[in-house]
Write a structure and sequence with these properties.
263 residues, two-stranded antiparallel sheet, 9 helices, globular
């Protein structure tokens, strides 16, 4: 599945379903509903660096947004079993993301990449960063010596990540992005024009007023709520950690082709 092999829209939809990036995904219904409930109950672990206030205290409202923007089952009485991500909504999200990447390339903007899910999405971000650099964008280099309570904020292959115990760390927290943006302001450096990320990295950037786009799973409602409110510009629904990270290559190729960034 090389990145150079660009699929048509229909072929991509089929690929997403076959690899379970979308369609019948691995995340079960009960896990989705549990996360929606915890977000509605004010558990900030599920707020992804955003400030949701009291706007999303009804889990049924959260479910309604997730049904609309992700394609999970909209029946509140459906409590257990298989849940879904609509692959058409995934591709529509990729199209919106491609348009924002094209804008960044046309304006040769400063772009920051980050991931809280390095086991799945690191190479998606790396390839996108490389394409934008080729198009003339500045890929922002983060300040050195940053850390949070979870670990060190590092940058590998142009992508900011959290490192803990010599391991790239899975995190929902917005604190690593907060550390980067705070350090940039302290050093008198300009903030990015665009953040391409996921999890709390994307959420906190949007909360801070930076254009933010990224990816989110069916059990991660915060970014979709933020997209519905305009805090995050684009949230692409997908399973963010499938069996092989190579399964994302055709998706990345489609994204870059739609953005006019293919080599």
């Amino acid at each position: 599945m090389p990145i150079s092999g660009t699929l048509s829209r229909a072929e991509l939809v089929d690929h997403l379903v076959k690899t379970r990036i979308a369609g019948d995904v691995a995340t079960p219904r009960e896990n989705n509903l549990s996360h929606y409930r915890k977000l509605a109950n004010g558990d900030r672990h599920y707020w992804f660096g955003l400030e949701l206030g009291s706007r999303w205290t009804d889990e049924q409202d959260v479910l309604a947004v997730m049904a609309e923007r992700v394609g999970v089952n909209d029946d509140p009485q459906y409590r257990y079993g298989q849940d879904t991500i609509d692959p058409e909504l995934t591709v529509e999200g990729l199209d919106r993301l491609a348009a924002r990447l094209r804008k960044a390339a046309d304006g040769q903007q400063r772009v920051l990449f980050a991931t809280g899910h390095p086991g799945g999405l690191l190479d998606v971000h790396r390839a996108t960063a490389a394409a934008l650099r080729t198009a003339g964008c500045e890929i922002l280099v983060i300040p050195e010596g940053l850390q949070t309570e979870e670990g060190y904020v590092m940058q590998f292959a142009d992508v900011a990540v959290l490192e803990h115990g010599a391991t790239l760390w899975h995190t929902h927290s917005g604190e690593p992005m907060k550390a980067i943006l705070t350090a940039l302001e302290r050093e008198g450096r300009p903030l990015p024009d665009l953040v391409v990320a996921d999890h709390g990295w994307a959420g906190y950037a949007g909360r801070h007023g930076v254009d933010s786009v990224g990816y989110a799973d069916s059990n991660d409602p915060a970014l979709f709520l933020a997209e519905s409110e305009g805090t995050v510009q684009v949230a692409v629904p997908l399973d963010d950690h499938v069996v092989s990270p190579r399964y994302y290559d055709p998706m990345t190729a489609y994204l870059l082709a739609e953005a006019g960034l293919s080599s």
